[in-house]
């Protein structure tokens, strides 16, 4: 059977996709960690001794390395691509990093598609939402669909657009996680976990993010200065509990900034 896809990087994402799609001989793979060959073999994937071997035939490549190796992988392996092969960069990196990687791939005669993976690969597996951007996005969509990916959407021709959506979305998603950690550390130290979480349940409103974002920004513009002062007291509370208020200090800066803009506008009227 013809090898349809090459995996560059065979960590959690690569192994999850390959097993979920039962790709077996349809796929080749290369990872700089030679111990990954054991997992490849168990999945029926052709583990290759070099990137050149893995990239020699497949028309579609999934780059699934770590973020800090994403650009180097594109630059180092682009010359090994068959002419017209599509490099799907599925790594979580900034738009400018993807544009630099695209330049390397396209200079070598390949085609580059910016792919944003919008959720953890487990447990979603091949149902994980994917956003695609690039002039070869339609062709990449067809190839990914044949591999079993079920939730794919093209967001434009511009490289970096898919990545921008993911990176900006992560401000909220990862920020909430960090805020949760800071809140829970303080609540645990103060012995008020149940009360704090119960209070949040009571005040939580089930509204969409369009409405939520507009509401949050309006509150900051109207009450930012007052809320910044309140959050300074929150920071003192955390310090007294031996919890570093890293996220809280950022909130103080942002609330004061938003409130100050409104105050300046009022003075100018």
Task: Summarize the structure in words.
With 269 residues, the chain is α/β, with parallel strands linked by helices. It folds into two domains: 5-165, Rossmann fold; 172-268, N-(1-d-carboxylethyl)-l-norvaline Dehydrogenase, domain 2 (Orthogonal Bundle), CATH 1.10.1040. The protein has helices at residues 12-21, 36-42, 51-55, 70-77, 95-107, 121-124, 137-146, 161-190, 193-203, 209-240, 246-268; strands at residues 5-8, 27-30, 46-47, 60-63, 86-89, 111-117, 130-133, 152-156. It has an eight-stranded mixed β-sheet, with helices on both faces. The termini are far apart. The mean pLDDT is 91.
Query: What's the level 1 CATH class of the largest domain?
Result: Alpha Beta
Note the gap between the termini. 73 Å
Find the structural class using helix and strand composition.
alpha/beta
Total DSSP helices: 11
- Strands, count: 8
Shape: elongated
Taking all residues together, what is the mean pLDDT? 91
Strand order of the largest sheet: 3-2-1-4-5-6-7-8
Count of individual domains: 2
The CATH architecture of the largest domain can be named as: 3-Layer(aba) Sandwich
As for the CATH topology of the largest domain, it is: Rossmann fold
What's the CATH H-level superfamily name of the largest domain?
A: NAD(P)-binding Rossmann-like Domain
Biggest beta sheet attributes: 8 strands, mixed
Radius of gyration: 23 Å
* Helix/strand order, N-terminal first: EHEHEHEHEHEHEHEHHHH
Strand proportion? 5-15%
- Poorly predicted segments: none
Helix content: 55-70%
């Amino acid at each position: 059977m013809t090898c349809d896809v090459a995996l560059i990087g065979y960590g959690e994402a690569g192994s999850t996709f390959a097993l979920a799609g039962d790709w077996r001989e349809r796929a080749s793979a290369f990872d700089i960690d030679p111990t990954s060959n054991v997992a490849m073999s168990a999945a029926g994937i052709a583990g290759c001794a070099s990137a050149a071997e893995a990239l020699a035939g497949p028309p579609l490549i999934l780059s699934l390395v770590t973020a800090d190796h994403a650009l180097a992988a594109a630059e180092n392996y682009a010359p090994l691509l068959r002419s017209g092969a599509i490099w799907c960069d599925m790594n979580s990196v900034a738009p400018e990093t993807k544009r630099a990687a695209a330049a390397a791939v396209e200079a070598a005669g390949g085609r580059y598609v910016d792919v944003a993976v919008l959720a953890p690969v487990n447990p979603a597996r091949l149902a994980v939402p994917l956003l695609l951007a690039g002039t070869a996005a339609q062709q990449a969509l067809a190839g990914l669909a044949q591999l079993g990916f079920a939730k794919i959407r093209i967001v434009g021709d511009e490289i970096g657009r898919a990545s921008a959506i993911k990176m900006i979305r992560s401000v909220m998603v990862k920020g909430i996680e960090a805020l949760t950690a800071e809140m829970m550390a303080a609540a645990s130290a103060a012995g008020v976990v149940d009360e704090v979480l119960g209070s949040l349940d009571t005040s939580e409103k089930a509204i969409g993010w369009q409405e939520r974002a507009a509401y949050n920004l309006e509150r900051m513009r109207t009450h930012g200065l007052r809320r910044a002062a309140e959050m300074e007291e929150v920071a003192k509370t955390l310090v007294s509990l031996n919890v570093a208020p890293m996220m809280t200090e950022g909130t103080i800066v942002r609330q004061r900034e938003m409130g100050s803009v409104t105050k300046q506008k009022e003075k100018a009227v």
